Amino acid sequence: MSLLEVEGLNSYYGDSHILFDVGMRVEENEVVALLGRNGAGKSTTLKSLMGVVRPRSGSVRLGGVEMVGRKSHAVARAGMQLVHEERRIFGSLNVEENLVLAGLTAPDRWPLERVYEMFPRLKERRTSRGTDLSGGEQQMLAIGRALIRAPRIVLLDEPFEGLAPVIVHDLVQACRTLADAGQTIVLVEQNLAATLALADRVYIINNGHIAHESTAAELRAQPEILHRYLGV
Ligand SMILES: Nc1ncnc2c1ncn2[C@@H]1O[C@H](COP(=O)(O)OP(=O)(O)O)[C@@H](O)[C@H]1O
Ligand SMILES: [Mg+2]
């Protein structure tokens, strides 16, 4: 049994059919990337896993337990955490308050110090308000808020987007450290180099259909697939 087993997911916004029989699996300790063009359905997939979008059919099993039909906070309590594209930190609270608040309702949690070890910059900025953080610091805080809840699996939606290369480098390093410590990660990204450097396996989604599945190493050796589905 894989940690996460997704089968036959169909999701809609109103009458618009967005995801078509999406399936994927994620093993414990794996980093799995979901790649695809803008609008392909990557964020909708992550939201469907979390129950933020309710799939009309299909199955999402976490540790063998069905998540479809549960509310997103229940899915979160079961051990899946989504870091949204738009980060969603509390601007009026400081860094430490954001972290503590995120941990409050978790059945299990990391000590604050472990988050600060992962992101030393957050420790330096612990008393700064969310609104005073740089984009990179906000992203670290958004990831830190997910990690403090000791998730079995963390879903990252474009964590490197819009950030300066030097910040992306730091975040990739942090993700590498996390992965090496055994954290299971699903990564949605446009940054192909960073993604292929981190991921063990890759799915490509195209117009709401899973179009390709392979190891990251196999994908790197198939430029025609990168070209066809990602236009690179
Ligand atoms: N809240 C929404 N209401 C209606 N359509 C949406 C909504 N969110 C996304 N879509 C549409 O669903 C499709 C997939 O979007 P999304 O999953 O956000 O793609 P990606 O994350 O791969 O860029 C796109 O055509 C997008 O316009
Ligand atoms: Mg998206």
TrEMBL record:
SUPFAM superfamilies: P-loop containing nucleoside triphosphate hydrolases. Residues 4-232 form the ABC transporter domain. GO terms for biological process: L-amino acid transport. Keywords: Amino-acid transport, ATP-binding, Cell membrane, Membrane, Nucleotide-binding, Transport. Belongs to the ABC transporter superfamily. PANTHER family: ABC TRANSPORTER ATP-BINDING PROTEIN (PTHR43820:SF2), HIGH-AFFINITY BRANCHED-CHAIN AMINO ACID TRANSPORT ATP-BINDING PROTEIN LIVF (PTHR43820). This is ABC transporter ATP-binding protein. It comes from Ramlibacter algicola. The lineage of its organism: Bacteria, Pseudomonadati, Pseudomonadota, Betaproteobacteria, Burkholderiales.
